[in-house]
């Protein structure tokens, strides 16, 4: 792809959520979402194969439907109140439509089925943007107006998302689909606490991004697209093998790693608000997530070939890929739990 074109695309992707975050006008927020949507499609089809084209088409149709629902709710609200912002007087049906549109964009259950298929069909770099940066703009709108949305609707979507993300990830062997179902489950954790403490939602999003980014960097550097291909990590990058295991355990929420912090804080907040059934159900679903992360660790660390390590040969090859940002991101994604008193 032309470097100038690629620069414009990335600048548009970066600008879209910023416009949504900084705006107080609903129509301008919608414009920011559309910029984000249209700029990602060329990155999805960069490989130019039928699978990526199909994934980009699914993504466009799904996101365009969500955008039209959101625009319709904005126009109905403007017709009723004459304002380009949601108010406590806004009709509850309008706010339900807003939540449905944002749930589609975030990949929340029961509107989640497009996310694993799209993530599987695109390249790993576009998949990283889809599962991290693309979540910021819709979630920022949800954070601004969550008090106007029925809390029972938020709780129901959170429960379904956590259960679907955990259960459907069990029978997956493709790393991109596993990370997509992990994203669905993490979105459920974020939405579950939105009615009680929105600050924990932001903390969960930041930690989720810091854990997902190094995993995709590793997958992209050595083309680990399936669990079976991850068994080659022992020969390609033995020094990173224990760190990958730690990142996966951190993503699963195992103490004393960074990923335990948001789950610990969210469960504590739910129990303080007398919501013990939801906290118990989400804690049990987290164990299912931890199971398929452990299965990936088994393929990475415990399944090795009966041969000598040939990493010295890879080091001297001129085409060996390196990523200088990977070590600090690995440290952040695994060792940030001691900072929990400051973060909370």
UniProtKB/TrEMBL annotation:
<feature type="transmembrane region" description="Helical">
    <location>
        <begin position="56"/>
        <end position="76"/>
    </location>
</feature>
<dbReference type="GO" id="GO:0006120">
    <property type="term" value="P:mitochondrial electron transport, NADH to ubiquinone"/>
</dbReference>
<feature type="domain" description="NADH dehydrogenase subunit 2 C-terminal">
    <location>
        <begin position="290"/>
        <end position="344"/>
    </location>
</feature>
<dbReference type="Pfam" id="PF06444">
    <property type="entry name" value="NADH_dehy_S2_C"/>
</dbReference>
<dbReference type="InterPro" id="IPR001750">
    <property type="entry name" value="ND/Mrp_TM"/>
</dbReference>
<comment type="function">
    <text>Core subunit of the mitochondrial membrane respiratory chain NADH dehydrogenase (Complex I) which catalyzes electron transfer from NADH through the respiratory chain, using ubiquinone as an electron acceptor. Essential for the catalytic activity and assembly of complex I.</text>
</comment>
<dbReference type="GO" id="GO:0008137">
    <property type="term" value="F:NADH dehydrogenase (ubiquinone) activity"/>
</dbReference>
<dbReference type="InterPro" id="IPR050175">
    <property type="entry name" value="Complex_I_Subunit_2"/>
</dbReference>
<comment type="similarity">
    <text>Belongs to the complex I subunit 2 family.</text>
</comment>
<comment type="subunit">
    <text>Core subunit of respiratory chain NADH dehydrogenase (Complex I) which is composed of 45 different subunits. Interacts with TMEM242.</text>
</comment>
<keyword id="KW-0249">Electron transport</keyword>
<keyword id="KW-0520">NAD</keyword>
<keyword id="KW-0496">Mitochondrion</keyword>
<feature type="transmembrane region" description="Helical">
    <location>
        <begin position="96"/>
        <end position="115"/>
    </location>
</feature>
<keyword id="KW-0999">Mitochondrion inner membrane</keyword>
<feature type="transmembrane region" description="Helical">
    <location>
        <begin position="202"/>
        <end position="219"/>
    </location>
</feature>
<feature type="transmembrane region" description="Helical">
    <location>
        <begin position="240"/>
        <end position="258"/>
    </location>
</feature>
<keyword id="KW-0813">Transport</keyword>
<feature type="transmembrane region" description="Helical">
    <location>
        <begin position="122"/>
        <end position="143"/>
    </location>
</feature>
<keyword id="KW-1133">Transmembrane helix</keyword>
<dbReference type="InterPro" id="IPR010933">
    <property type="entry name" value="NADH_DH_su2_C"/>
</dbReference>
<dbReference type="Pfam" id="PF00361">
    <property type="entry name" value="Proton_antipo_M"/>
</dbReference>
<keyword id="KW-0679">Respiratory chain</keyword>
<keyword id="KW-1278">Translocase</keyword>
<feature type="transmembrane region" description="Helical">
    <location>
        <begin position="278"/>
        <end position="298"/>
    </location>
</feature>
<keyword id="KW-0472">Membrane</keyword>
<keyword id="KW-0812">Transmembrane</keyword>
<feature type="domain" description="NADH:quinone oxidoreductase/Mrp antiporter transmembrane">
    <location>
        <begin position="23"/>
        <end position="287"/>
    </location>
</feature>
<dbReference type="InterPro" id="IPR003917">
    <property type="entry name" value="NADH_UbQ_OxRdtase_chain2"/>
</dbReference>
<dbReference type="GO" id="GO:0005743">
    <property type="term" value="C:mitochondrial inner membrane"/>
</dbReference>
<keyword id="KW-0830">Ubiquinone</keyword>
<protein>
    <recommendedName>
        <fullName>NADH-ubiquinone oxidoreductase chain 2</fullName>
        <ecNumber>7.1.1.2</ecNumber>
    </recommendedName>
</protein>
<feature type="transmembrane region" description="Helical">
    <location>
        <begin position="149"/>
        <end position="166"/>
    </location>
</feature>
